[in-house]
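Second opinion, please. Please look over this fold, written as tokens:

===
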Amino acid sequence: MTGPAVPQRLCAPEPGWTDTVDVVVIGSGIAGLTAALKARELGTVLVVTKDVVASGSTQWAQGGIAAALSPEDSPEDHLQDTLVAGAGLCDPDAVRALVTEGPDAVRDLIELGARFDTLADGDLSLTREGGHHRNRIAHAGGDATGAEIERALVAAVKRADDIRLIEHALVIDLLTAADGGVAGVTLHVMGEGQLDGVGAIRSRVVILASGGIGQLYAATTNPSVSTGDGMALALRAGAKVRDLEFVQFHPTVLWLGKSAKGQQPLVSEAVRGEGAFLVDHEGNRFMQGQHELADLAPRDIVAKAIMRQMLATGKDHVYVDARHFGDEKWRVRFPTILASCRSHGIDPVRELIPVAPACHYSSGGVWTDLDGQTSMPGLYACGEVACTGVHGANRLASNSLLEGLVFARRIAAHLADGLPPLREPVADIRVPGLVDADVVDEVQRVMTVGAGVIRSARGLAEAGATLGKLIEQPAGEPGTPGWEATNLVTVASALIAAATVREESRGSHWREDHPDRDDRNWSGSLDLTLPSEGDTARPRTTFVPHDTKENAHHG
């Protein structure tokens, strides 16, 4: 099965300068900065980030970070909740690593300087979110957990004289060696500074921590930098990407009207964890009977229930009712959400909060093993760009920050056994290409309609056909807008290919023409690669059954 043809590499000027380090980290969220702080003990480290160091998705995480930190909780309980949310596609070994190493990783964050909310006796204040059967969500600043974690990590990195940082830099493509391994990266540094324009960084190791793909869709909780750059460059270099069809749509994103686009304000699941509930336009609660946890069901269950309610009533949103919290609880526990709502003319202390699902998180990504190694020697990945096997078909709430933290540490622990030698890059014979930067709005529209919360063979085919036409539009000069557009269509093409092949509904992949979960035929993962075909490359899917882990072509 193939999707639209995409460029084999980005069209860009030849590098005008070269530098050499031991480890390049791409991205500056919780995964990237943790990896950098741990890897600095092993050699020279360079962090490359597309905007300022604190601009990624981590700072926007409201709810918190999940870990078994309470005497009433256990890693085994956390494991079971994660496996259930993952709808049969989690890797149990990866989940076990997450939940057993998570508590110590969070404690290390606290030692680093992250200040989590505490009770009067000094113990951590823990709450609950969708899919969790225990209070295990540690939070900071009420609902500003990600911002506090990012603050602590950025401060630690800036204290570390042995970590170099290049801000406002877009990584273009990977340098590869004769053995298929990674030899470094090419990047474009924007603005003033000693390093300017396109250059090359040679390195022993590249760690991808570049975040997600939220800008594929018209409405998302992701910041503008989330254009799938890491997944796209990994695909172009030949790395394996897994489970890309499982895009989680957060069920409760502040609804700002039909014309709202781009990053939308999140109404954290923690609001429902503290006792809020969903209602329709008539004030009826509709989650009862949908799941044993009702309003706190896993995200895919809640998002589907909201979509069904919207379709049944002809409305384009539902509501969160948290009026019973009162003014003080809103001010203390959810100050960020309170301010956000009020800035848009909604007072949640006295009014219902209009919400609708929006793109939130990619459960799939660049395939890695338990040590964060990808299918390419020398290339590692952690955080949202990676598919570690932890999330399966649907991420459990607040496991994302923990995954970035735990697997960044695992990468550094693996590299402590010895960095690979510096590889010699070979000439890149792949055909360069570029997509017109002006197609992004239309890409977001067709992905929202054809590959959004509800999918079908017809809708996916129409989205793929439109995408193919957009790719063929004449492009302008190479630069960040065109490179980002090319990355978006590369990931979109792969996502459409995977979503078309998986003819079932599971987790966050909902096919209205195949509405049932099909464990007999689809209990496994879809791997994607991007083999070249002349001047272009088309996504190729391979089905990997979870019982055998053997590769078998499936469609």
In short: The chain has a mean pLDDT of 92.
